[in-house]
Structures are given as C-alpha cells and as structure tokens.
Amino acid sequence: MPPRLEPPFRADHVGSLLRPPALLAARERAAAGEIGAAELRGVEDAAVRDAVRLQQEVGLLGVSDGEFRRTYWHMDFIYRLAGVTRAEESLHVTFHNEEGDVDWAPAALKVDGRIGLRETIFGDDFAFLRDAAEGTGMTPKLTIPSPSMVHYRGGRAALDPAVYPDEQQFWDDLSAAYAQEVQGLADLGCTHLQLDDTSLAYLNDPAQREALAGQGRDAAHQHERYVAQINAAIADRPDSMRVTTHLCRGNFRSSWVASGGYDFVAEVLFGELAVDGYFLEFDDERSGGFEPLRFVPPGKTVVLGLVTSKRGALEDKDALKRRIDEAARFVPLEQLALSPQCGFSSTVEGNSLTIEEQAAKLRLVVETAAEVWG
C-alpha cells in the first residue's frame, strides 16, 4: 500500500515528556482535594503551551502535548472505553535497570460490559494541542495505546464470560470502538496518530512468551491476532491521516521489562501491519540488531530510536550516524528517520534525567537528522 502522506519528519520523538515541577505539584494538590478539576486543567494548559514552545525551539516539526494530562501512557485511555473497568486486584510487573530490579503493581482491568466508545477519547486534549500549535508550522500528533493493550494485560481471563462467551465478539467490538475513535480524531483534524504498543515488542522475549503459554494463551501466534485487529481498527482511516506505531519493551523510572530483537514478530509486523511507519527501540543491546528491518517494504518509514530516554548522558553524534548507516544496509536511508528510543515519562513518575537533559536529547536528534538527511 503506498504511503498516505509524505514520509514523516526525519527528527521526531515518541510523545511523552517529563512533567514540569509546577504540574506535578498541582496534581498532588488536586489528589489531596486542595484544588478542583478546573484549576488543575489550567495548570495543565500552561504546561502544554510550554511543551509546544520547547519542541518548536529545538527544531521539531511534529509536536505532542507531552501526555501531560495522563498518569499512565495507556490506562487513562483504556479505562475510558465503555465496558472496561478497573479491577480490584493489581498486577505484578518486574522492571529492570543497571542497578537491579524495580517492582511495580499497576492496576489491572476487567471487561465486564460490551466494549464501545462513549466519546472521542482525548478529543478535548488533542483540540487544545491543535490550537496551541497553530501558526508554529508543527504538526500535532496524538498518541494512544494500541488495541492490543486492552487484551495483553489480562487476555481471555479478563473478559466476563457472560458478556463475551465468544472471544471473537470482543475483538469485533474492540476494533469497532477504535475505528470510531480514529474517525473522531480525524474529524478534529488529527493527521498523525501514533498507536503505542508494548505487546508486539514483549512477544520477542522468550520469557514473555513462556509466561503467556503458562496462562493458556497461544503465544506463538498472539502477534498475528494483534496485527489483524490493529488493521481492522485503522482500515477506514482517511487518506489525510498517517498512522504510526511505537514498540516499547517497558519504560518506567528508567527501567524496562522485556529484551530481545524484533526477529520473532518481524515478518508479520513489517509485512502485514497496515501502518505508515514504525518507531522502534534500538538504544542498546536489548533491542537486538537491525537485521529484522529487511522485512520492511517500500513506502514505510522506520524511525530509529537510537537516543535513549532512560539516561541523561548525551550520545555521540558520530556514533549515531554510524548506526544509521548500519540500519541502511537493511532498509533504504530515505525510509529512515531518528528519534529517542521511548518517551521521557511514560508514567507520571518520569525517567531519571532532567528537563534540561531532555531538551539536549531532542536537539541532538534534530541536529543529527539534519546532517544525515539534509
């Protein structure tokens, strides 16, 4: 399928940015009941405007709202789907970093009603970003979790059998709800929608596949189901909308969950997923080599996540250029772009670097891209 728009910007970023101190303080006050929703929204609005200015100053042509209004990159969206509620129990997830392990107990979900869409989720947030970016020359981008994330967290066990005795009906409803979301965002003027997905990256890790198999899931073919459902969700998007996906192996307080190259999912991911581009992690050895990129067809863009968002130390520009050259052995240089490897703050806690270090990372991405692609 030919690309719907010209290739995306050579320098981009995944979406989330570190929350400024004033915003974190306002969220704490709101949680304590000291300020109301309207006052918190005002602080968020100011923070988003500052984020737009930052992205303009460093030279980016695409702009996000930093995901400043969310606590988690995915659950704030998923809990707003009709039929999905927060489960009483929590999950247990072990993240890893250079110093050791970090245990996290995020809330689980359950599907106890028919999946549907009550309203365009994050519609007001996107409209604010769209208006804040007006006149800057930047294209506003919205990031939302892939439909895969509604299933990966709990699988069949999270579905109420009285609601979905047949799992296929769940998939049909989920893709239909996402299709409505896509159309609602298009109606608001969204021309770049990014679907964030950890599942398709996690499935490259043998330990993750073993865990799924232990739950009775079809770990060997789960990625094929997910790709089919994403395709169903975006099939009717307008030609004006570019859809990309970001694959992540976990991003919480500078830590990760999964390891492994893209080999296990590559052929289906690149050959069958009907997106226009891929944001891929390649910041260290956990992500494997560039060989799986040989499956990327003409017309699709691969955004190389070579600049880590997990540490503040700045990468060497020449080393980045050499890695871009290495990737170009498997996919033409004109189909490549550059970004940080993941968001800087996938959860409200953020990663272990400063706002100034974050800006330096973004400038490095822009400068390197300009020198490579002109």
Instruction: Tell the overall outline.
Output: globular
Number of helices: 12
Q: What is the spatial order of strands in the main beta sheet? A: 7-8-9-10-11-12
Instruction: Name the average pLDDT.
Output: 92
Any idea of the CATH topology?
Answer: TIM Barrel
How much beta, percentage-wise? 15-25%
Estimate the helix proportion, in percent. 25-40%
Description:
There is one protein chain. The protein is globular and about 60 Å long. The model has no long low-confidence stretch (mean pLDDT 92). The chain has a 6-stranded parallel beta sheet with strand order 7-8-9-10-11-12. Strands 1-6 form a two-stranded parallel sheet. The protein has a single domain, classed as Alpha-Beta Barrel (TIM Barrel), CATH 3.20.20.210. The chain is of the alpha/beta class and 374 residues long. It is 37% helix and 18% strand. Helix 11 (317-327) links the parallel strand 11 and strand 12 (336-340).
